[in-house]
């Protein structure tokens, strides 16, 4: 993130911006009620501002001790290509490395080709030893 007009704050994104960025980046769109409850589970977050506008988000959620998930990495398409995804990950990984206990397990579900970004921060594919699985409540 080399641009002087951007700033990253270690804060949970505002609800409206969270929902907007998920929608415009093609992530699952949650109800306002579900998103509001989900944001309460944020352990650490990175919110990128361009002026006063939120243009990027990322969160760390988990049980607080053993298992964590980096999720909701989203950058407004207008602002992609400026290193914002990498800056979000760097902020979250700074929290991980300085606050989580030894042997904590941090996961991420990587949409391709974003796996290349996450590999820069030490994440490795788990296959063939294990695979990620998911269930979406209908």
From TrEMBL:
Pfam family, one: Acetyltransf_10
Residue ranges the record marks as coiled coil: none
InterPro entries noted in UniProt: Acetyltransferase_Butenolide, Acyl_CoA_acyltransferase, GNAT_dom
Keywords: Transferase
GO molecular function term, any single one: acyltransferase activity, transferring groups other than amino-acyl groups
Domain N-acetyltransferase: 6-138
The organism's place on the tree of life at top rank: Bacteria
Annotated PANTHER family: FAMILY N-ACETYLTRANSFERASE, PUTATIVE (AFU_ORTHOLOGUE AFUA_6G03350)-RELATED
This protein's name: Acetyltransferase (GNAT) domain-containing protein
